[in-house]
Design a protein that fits this description.
Elements: H1 4-15, H2 26-38, H3 43-78, H4 102-133
Helix pairs in contact: 1-2, 1-3, 1-4, 2-3, 3-4
Organism: Winogradskyella aquimaris
Keywords: Membrane, Transmembrane, Transmembrane helix
Membrane topology: Multi-pass membrane protein
Length: 148
Amino acid sequence: MLDNHHKNLATFIHLSTFSRFIIPFGNFIGPIVLWAANKDKSEFIDQHGKQAINFQISVLLYAIIIGTISVPFFIFKLFGKLDVIDFRGFHDFHINIGEPSPLLYIGGGLGALAVIAFIIELALIVKASLSARDGQIYKYPLTINFLK
């Protein structure tokens, strides 16, 4: 039987991921600290803690993948006309904004995908918090189970 204390702890585990807006890596530190201190009190808290941590690690992994794919597109566009062999400083460095490259469209599309994914992440965290408040188990979609 779940009491309100367990529901509140599970809710705060999910909501503690928002601490990243105040503390660097707070989205990992907050849930890990709350989960580690309270995981033995209830299976409900243990499951929600693992879900929150697994989701944050998965989001970090997906962000690294999207960033690794999109950043080179911008670099190739900016430095495409730079002659690396005959480099004489920055007086020959030109950025032509007039003609967009397909690489810029691909990189911009991946950047837009990252923004949409961030908004979806925030909505999923709120949904998980509300499920924990109601005493229900919530499983984040597309989450890799690092902690089982």
